[in-house]
From TrEMBL:
<feature type="binding site">
    <location>
        <position position="258"/>
    </location>
    <ligand>
        <name>pyridoxal 5'-phosphate</name>
    </ligand>
</feature>
<keyword id="KW-0032">Aminotransferase</keyword>
<feature type="binding site">
    <location>
        <position position="287"/>
    </location>
    <ligand>
        <name>substrate</name>
    </ligand>
</feature>
<feature type="binding site">
    <location>
        <position position="404"/>
    </location>
    <ligand>
        <name>substrate</name>
    </ligand>
</feature>
<protein>
    <recommendedName>
        <fullName>Adenosylmethionine-8-amino-7-oxononanoate aminotransferase</fullName>
        <ecNumber>2.6.1.62</ecNumber>
    </recommendedName>
</protein>
<feature type="binding site">
    <location>
        <position position="320"/>
    </location>
    <ligand>
        <name>substrate</name>
    </ligand>
</feature>
<dbReference type="InterPro" id="IPR005815">
    <property type="entry name" value="BioA"/>
</dbReference>
<dbReference type="InterPro" id="IPR015421">
    <property type="entry name" value="PyrdxlP-dep_Trfase_major"/>
</dbReference>
<keyword id="KW-0949">S-adenosyl-L-methionine</keyword>
<feature type="binding site">
    <location>
        <position position="64"/>
    </location>
    <ligand>
        <name>substrate</name>
    </ligand>
</feature>
<dbReference type="GO" id="GO:0004015">
    <property type="term" value="F:adenosylmethionine-8-amino-7-oxononanoate transaminase activity"/>
</dbReference>
<comment type="similarity">
    <text>Belongs to the class-III pyridoxal-phosphate-dependent aminotransferase family. BioA subfamily.</text>
</comment>
<dbReference type="GO" id="GO:0009102">
    <property type="term" value="P:biotin biosynthetic process"/>
</dbReference>
<dbReference type="InterPro" id="IPR015422">
    <property type="entry name" value="PyrdxlP-dep_Trfase_small"/>
</dbReference>
<keyword id="KW-0963">Cytoplasm</keyword>
<dbReference type="InterPro" id="IPR015424">
    <property type="entry name" value="PyrdxlP-dep_Trfase"/>
</dbReference>
<feature type="binding site">
    <location>
        <position position="157"/>
    </location>
    <ligand>
        <name>substrate</name>
    </ligand>
</feature>
Length: 437
């Protein structure tokens, strides 16, 4: 047996990893090796072994939208250390802790409308499960258990557990693999693209017709507001959200916004719902919640949903993960929010948006590039073909940048703390990746 503290060099670790560890969307053993990160600070990942002489990579991905303040941030580190010294975790059933209480109170305050009831879960997918359970239980509480299906538009991504998977884009979510297994939801066409585009009234009419036809069996409309992330990095006009709010009210279904990717400033508003000035009935938060330090997510809902659940035959929200309200994650989340507001996230995100516009513009001239788009601190180069991920990643690494293209997309959402020079590196690398990808 491998002794728990046997010394392992980088070569041995990467090979063990390849043979023993599942990575996202891979086989096991994996077909190729992962890069071993030795440490990270600021916007840089330090590799355990240089790749063609490159030892450090500027992180263009913020560890999948999460590390908005970069790595080893002194205040987030201090918050984690201080909380570890008090307690890392204590159960949330019958007990509570200051960090979780403070976090919930802050989230209730900063989210749109009156979303005053906060459920702290341990991952984005679980927060979506909780949101959907809230909606279904709400209608049960009102004596209408038949309202249990969900309406969403195509092109979405809501997580990898079962109920969230059922509202992911049917193709991206591999519904063909799961036909007969996943709950069958109601899908509208993907929303027309273009943040600044006029709304397409005929699209909304078709959406309304679906809602009208299925209203009696629908619990909720579930969407990612403004940016569809892992489903294709597509942006739509905020006006659609205002209209969804009206339609949801007219046909008596709840409205759920999944802001797991968009929350905490990424799109240029604190929450993407802010572009439209509307509040959903239930909102999911995750990813950047802890500044990318620890896994924590939140589902927040308003009075209507909380009271509906409380009025049911089973008058409690029947969900309670072991690590609910984890004090360590909550303490870091509190520190992350303090830094976010103090350091003027809005100015930073607007600065990054300008840098992305300028830096990615040359990609428009490359043959095979279909579209280049920027919203807030999100930059996307869309090709007219599937990216050669190995070639595109290698081109970025050669320029000292970490990017993780997927499908036909080379995209970046850098940490908010990135400076102009490093942002230039990231955009140069993305353009170079588009050339070879
Ligand atoms: C990442 C993501 C999720 C899932 O979150 P996990 O923490 O990976 O479970 C759900 N919805 C959206 C919009 C996401 O971007």
């Amino acid at each position: 047996m491998l002794s728990l503290d046997a010394p392992l060099n980088a070569e041995e670790l990467t090979e063990l990893d390849r043979r023993r560890v599942w990575h996202p969307y891979t086989t096991s053993p994996t077909g190729s090796r992962q890069l071993l990160v030795e440490s990270a600070a600021g916007v840089r990942l330090r590799l355990a072994r240089p790749v063609n002489g490159v030892e450090e990579l500027v992180d263009g991905m913020s560890s999948w939208w999460a590390a908005v303040h970069g790595y080893a941030h002194p205040e987030l580190d201090a918050a984690a250390h201080a909380q570890v010294d008090r307690m890392s975790h204590v159960m949330f059933g019958g007990l509570t802790n200051e960090s979780a209480v403070r976090l919930a109170a802050t989230l209730a305050e900063i989210t749109p409308g009156a979303l005053n009831h906060v459920f702290l879960a341990d991952s984005g997918s679980v927060s979506v499960e909780v949101a959907l359970k809230m909606c279904l239980q709400y209608w049960r509480g009102l004596g209408r258990p038949e309202k249990r299906r969900l309406l969403t538009w195509r092109g979405g991504y809501h997580g990898d557990t079962w109920h969230p998977m059922s509202v992911c884009d049917p193709e991206g979510g591999m519904h063909h693999l799961w036909s007969g297994v996943l709950n069958e939801q109601v899908f509208a066409e993907a929303p027309p693209v273009g943040f600044g585009a006029d709304v397409d009234e005929s699209y909304l009419e078709r959406f309304e017709r679906l809602l009208w036809r299925h209203a009696e069996e629908l619990a909720a409309v579930v969407v990612e507001p403004v940016v569809q992330g892992a489903g294709g990095m597509r942006f739509h006009a905020p006006e659609y959200l205002r209209r969804l709010r009206e339609l949801a009210d007219r046909y008596d279904v709840l409205l759920v916004f999944d802001e797991i990717a968009t929350g905490f400033g990424r799109t240029g508003e604190l929450f993407a719902a802010g572009h439209a000035g509307v509040a959903p009935d239930v909102m999911c938060l995750g990813k950047a919640l802890t500044g990318g330090y620890l896994t924590m997510a939140a589902t927040v809902c308003g009075e209507r949903v909380a009271e509906g659940i409380a009025g049911g035959d089973v008058p409690v929200l029947a969900h309670g993960p072991t690590f609910m309200g984890n004090p360590l994650a909550a303490a870091v989340a509190n520190a992350s929010l303090r830094v976010l507001f103090r350091d003027d996230w809005r100015a930073k995100v607007h600065g990054i948006a300008a840098g992305l516009e300028t830096g990615l513009a040359p990609a428009r001239e490359i043959a095979g590039v279909r579209d280049v788009r920027v919203l807030g601190a999100i930059g996307v180069i869309q090709l007219d073909h599937e990216v050669d991920v190995a070639a595109a990643s290698a081109a970025a690494i050669e320029r000292g940048v970490w990017l993780r293209p997927f499908r036909d997309l080379i995209y970046t959402m850098p940490p908010y703390v990135i400076d102009a020079e490093d942002l230039g590196r990231v955009t140069d690398a993305a353009v170079a990746a588009a050339r070879v990808g």
